[in-house]
Amino acid sequence: MTTPPSGIPHVVIVGGGFAGLWATRALARDGVRITLVDRRNHHLFQPLLYQVATAGLSAPDIAAPLRHILRGQRNVEVRLGEVIDIDAAARTVTLTDGDSLRYDFLLLASGATHAYFGHDAWAPHAPGLKTLDDALAIRRRLLLAFERAEAAASAEERAAWLDFAIVGGGPTGVELAGTLAEIARHTLRNEFRRIDPAEAKVRLIEAGPRVLASFPESLSARARAQLERLGVEVLTGTPVADIDADGYTLGDARVRSHTVLWAAGVAASPLGALLDAPRDRAGRVLVQPDLSVPGRAELFVAGDLASVQQDGKPVPGVAPAAKQMGAHVARVIRARLRNEPAPTFRYRDFGNLATIGRMAAVVHLGRLKLSGLPAWWFWLFIHIFFLIGFRNRLIVLIDWAWAYWSYQRHARIILGEQRPPLP
Amino acid sequence: MTTPPSGIPHVVIVGGGFAGLWATRALARDGVRITLVDRRNHHLFQPLLYQVATAGLSAPDIAAPLRHILRGQRNVEVRLGEVIDIDAAARTVTLTDGDSLRYDFLLLASGATHAYFGHDAWAPHAPGLKTLDDALAIRRRLLLAFERAEAAASAEERAAWLDFAIVGGGPTGVELAGTLAEIARHTLRNEFRRIDPAEAKVRLIEAGPRVLASFPESLSARARAQLERLGVEVLTGTPVADIDADGYTLGDARVRSHTVLWAAGVAASPLGALLDAPRDRAGRVLVQPDLSVPGRAELFVAGDLASVQQDGKPVPGVAPAAKQMGAHVARVIRARLRNEPAPTFRYRDFGNLATIGRMAAVVHLGRLKLSGLPAWWFWLFIHIFFLIGFRNRLIVLIDWAWAYWSYQRHARIILGEQRPPLP
């Protein structure tokens, strides 16, 4: 048992994503001692993860070590570790290495993972995108698929390797589909001798009636048109019936494909289940208006793991919401320490952006709706601005400028086993 | 069996390193059809591999897809695959996927791997550095060692996690030791709360009488002095007796350490053993003066897999020698096609450089001997100049400038399993 120096309240924060990191920083000048626990050594700029999966950026471009970000904040200790138990009555958190941390305040901000809605057998055949390891695994699969197509012994095999399906028409699915179409049509041009990569079929499959359902209908329609112009086949109202090693099934139709990516659903981190608290269907913890757990004034949940309703609508699982929740938990802890009433969380919606591909994006800010090139520039500068670290901003800007002019993607390196994923 | 169009001589080149790639490029305007086979999809700029292992550069910064490099050379087909058999009488090469390639000329340039001199049991405890996967595995180990030290339950465990040994005082060992000392003393400063990373012990262990044995003695001595100034403990004339999961043995002395890196020896690629040709102790093929295999005028070996003597000394296993051999094989093939006599290979030695760490390097060019800051600047610009790809040069230059001013290393991202390598 590791005990903090007596007297100073100990805040344990689980998860170094946007919610956890923003809470940690907001408590920099308070008389508390913070232990930030994460399973990974880095904060990840998740909005650009699809760029790593599609070989446009290197993994370190969008991640920074938590220790490095927080090196100057002397009231923080960063701990690489995984939480396996929470005892809310005893106020302790237990880690896999057996160590346990006693807390005065606990913030659970361990985020979300992808979910297969009861079809866990699909997972090995349709990888999802939540971590850098996921992104590198997808990059490997995408690049190897073209290699396998080039070496294919039959036309059927070749077609199966050149068939790419992305399941789920939310922002991640749209980004992956648009970028993959660009890779096939432009990036790989002239590089193969037996196949024409531009013949690759990129299909975006959405069960609901439209892509980017969180945007106004007019922007969904424009996103669809932009995807189609990039060469993506968009299927809406089309649930996937089955996925296996050899392809997928839509209704009665069977499609042979060796590359299916999953962007269809998220579930909350399993840590939420360790709390004795009500949860929604996706496993998110239903929190109080101040983001604490019912009956536990010292225990908070924020970010993608928290289910918050505002004006009858759920607060969305996006980075700005997570940052705002993290900062709010810091304010509530401060209020508790001063025996003041806790403020109520209020999400400020600054708008909604999604990128689609080269010069294609949609932006929705209040009454402003943009699409196409202006939306793309807007998206690009917002994302560079919010990246952590001056070096990262500069390098990402250079990589994008380079990619823009050359149509190239510099990270097209296959790591690990070079044989194909087993079909 | 894949057969090239009849009539045009088919050159099969195995290995896309410096020798194979330079041979391929040199044959761009000849009336031959080339198949370049590599197990990996990328050419690797091996001289900077230690920078990836020590988190200074990202993997894609020092690698480029072979297809991309060669996209404009229409007489080349790049094939991702692994050779498992060579039938020199039938002139065929067989790949793991069962396909076999019939050749008129064959160049084997599959390089070298690290060797444990009969101590293969040491391999899991003392990883070597030859591929990008090796570099990322070493990066993981180095970064996790500091994390484990921070979380260690006892002073002994902490010391064992802060003990780093590099076995082998050649260029790779010197680079790793110097850079690791800089990471411990500068990069990680202020980032830990329970350990002082500067207390890490970095030890370079060489069995022979001096480090950088391929340099003049005066430069070896200066390299040693520079290493010691950076904080490396240099042991010469000290063979390692044993390495296991818990540490290593020098003579009778046992040292507890969880991080031992292997930079002590290379062996030729196992493909050399598939030829019916004499080989040296390290498995390199003893080639004729024109780099062909005795009795096989159409079969060549180049790069680290070839053993070539010149003026009574072996041609060293360095990048410039490999490039020159590759270009020479192209000339010999051209001569054979014209029924002209084959030229004799002659290595032009442009000098020898090794970097040690921040502002520390040694350079030996003819009568010129440099060390310290001037040698370091020289090394730096030579290496940037020879990197493939404009983008890579620019990004590496920015990364180094950034690292120089900030002492930071941007790629300190732990990927894969975050638990410790089993001690």
Write structural notes for this entry.
- The structure is a homodimer of 423-residue chains.
- By secondary structure, the first copy, chain A, is of the alpha/beta class.
- Chain A has two domains: 177 residues, FAD/NAD(P)-binding domain; 176 residues, 3-Layer(bba) Sandwich (FAD/NAD(P)-binding domain).
- Chain A has ten helices and 27 strands.
- In chain A, the strands form nine sheets. A six-stranded mixed sheet of chain A has the order 5-2-1-9-21-20, covered by helices on one side. A four-stranded parallel sheet of chain A has the order 13-12-11-17.
- In chain A, strand 11, helix 6 and strand 12 form a beta-alpha-beta unit.
- The first copy, chain A, is elongated, with a radius of gyration of 22 Å.
- The first copy, chain A, starts with 9 loop residues before the first strand and ends in a 17-residue tail after the last helix.
- The interface between A and B is large, with 56 and 57 residues.
Summarize the structure.
Chain A is α/β, with parallel strands linked by helices. The first copy, chain A, has helices spanning 18-26, 49-53, 66-69, 132-151, 155-161, 171-187, 217-230, 319-337, 372-386, 390-406, and strands spanning 10-14, 33-38, 42-44, 63-65, 76-80, 83-87, 92-95, 100-102, 105-108, 112-114, 163-167, 201-205, 232-235, 240-244, 247-250, 253-256, 259-262, 266-268, 285-286, 292-293, 296-301, 306-307, 309-310, 313-314, 352-357, 360-365, 368-371. In chain A, the strands form 9 sheets. Chain A has a 6-stranded mixed beta sheet with strand order 5-2-1-9-21-20, with helices on one face.
